């Protein structure tokens, strides 16, 4: 049995109008070992979110397989699949995607703790880990700032005891001044919980802060991968070089220019 997440030539194809189809994930093979922190980078539209959704069983594969600790995620019966998917938690760009706006934050974290097969830290401790005052348990998500809400979403995701956390651009909607802090905090919380982390971002500079290994995605494929410092200091692919070059010229919102314009 192989520990952790394994994708073997996984593809996702979307049907489009007039009989056209788009292969958003194109034969991707990768492995994320237990406790690893891996960054997935690439320009907007290269297939990062589709890949994340496929890992969680939210997209049907058109080819290949996804397995977790040796169990194929997509081919299990519903009950077993639900159990196995509880071990993978997503953190989205918009924290409202995982937080219930009508439920107090303490209750939401407690709900997640109840499905934890192991010993989850108490709600107050989880909140302290994400630097939220434990006395805030009775407040609702809208009473917090965007950065605080994202930290609460991180606490809720960890409370259910996942083996793998996937952050799909989890800092993209935050002020530039908060991005590095929330990314580092997510990494620290994942490591403390013993979970692996797949951190998806278009921003290699932030990924460099927290990931030990980087996967570079373009047009549905992983075109380069390696230790973060190797990718940062000695990128092999022209696309990766352009991603790196684009960092200093990011606009005030942290957006990269169109990479294809630069590469082709
Ligand atoms: N449900 C869908 N139906 C059809 N096409 C889709 C669907 N979801 C995504 N796509 C297309 O698949 C490709 C990959 O999209 P995806 O959202 O995975 O990329 P991404 O790298 O996460 O981009 P972003 O960072 O902008 O979210 C894009 O061309 C997108 O338009």
Automatic annotation (TrEMBL):
Superkingdom field: Bacteria
Residue ranges occupied by any ABC transporter domain in the UniProt entry: 7-244
The keyword Ribosomal protein is assigned to this record: no
Biological-process GO terms, alphabetical: transmembrane transport
Any Pfam family matching the protein: ABC_tran
Keyword Transport annotated: yes
GO molecular function, one term: ATP hydrolysis activity
Keyword field: ATP-binding, Nucleotide-binding, Transport
InterPro entries, per database record: AAA+_ATPase, ABC_transp_ATP-bind, ABC_transporter-like_ATP-bd, ABC_transporter-like_CS, P-loop_NTPase
Gene3D superfamilies, alphabetized: P-loop containing nucleotide triphosphate hydrolases
UniProt similarity note: Belongs to the ABC transporter superfamily.
PANTHER family, per database record: D,D-DIPEPTIDE TRANSPORT ATP-BINDING PROTEIN DDPF-RELATED, TRANSPORT ATP-BINDING PROTEIN
Record protein name field: ABC transporter domain-containing protein
Organism: Microlunatus endophyticus
């Amino acid at each position: 049995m192989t520990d952790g997440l394994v994708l073997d030539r996984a593809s996702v194809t979307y049907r489009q109008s007039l009989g056209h189809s788009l292969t958003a994930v194109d034969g991707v093979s990768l492995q994320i070992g237990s406790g690893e922190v891996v960054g997935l980078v690439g320009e907007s539209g290269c297939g990062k979110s589709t890949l994340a959704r496929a890992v969680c069983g939210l997209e049907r594969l058109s080819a290949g397989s996804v397995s977790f600790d040796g169990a194929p995620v997509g081919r299990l019966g519903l009950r077993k699949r639900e159990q196995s998917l509880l071990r993978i938690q997503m953190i989205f760009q918009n924290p409202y995607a995982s937080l219930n706006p009508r439920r107090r934050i303490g209750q939401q974290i407690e709900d997640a703790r109840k499905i934890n097969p192991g010993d989850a830290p108490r709600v107050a401790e989880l909140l302290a880990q994400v630097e939220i005052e434990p006395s805030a348990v009775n407040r609702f998500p809208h009473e917090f700032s965007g950065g605080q809400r994202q930290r609460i979403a991180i606490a809720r995701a960890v409370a259910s005891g996942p083996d793998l956390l996937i952050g799909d651009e989890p800092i993209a909607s935050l002020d530039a001044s908060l991005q590095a802090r929330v990314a580092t905090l997510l990494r620290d919380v994942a490591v403390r919980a013993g979970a692996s982390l797949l951190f998806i971002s278009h921003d290699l500079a932030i990924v460099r802060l927290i990931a030990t290994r980087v996967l570079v995605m373009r047009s549905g494929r992983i075109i380069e991968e390696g230790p973060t410092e190797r990718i940062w200091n000695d990128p092999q692919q022209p696309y990766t070089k352009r991603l790196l070059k684009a960092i200093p010229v990011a606009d005030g919102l942290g957006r990269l220019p169109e990479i294809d314009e630069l590469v082709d």
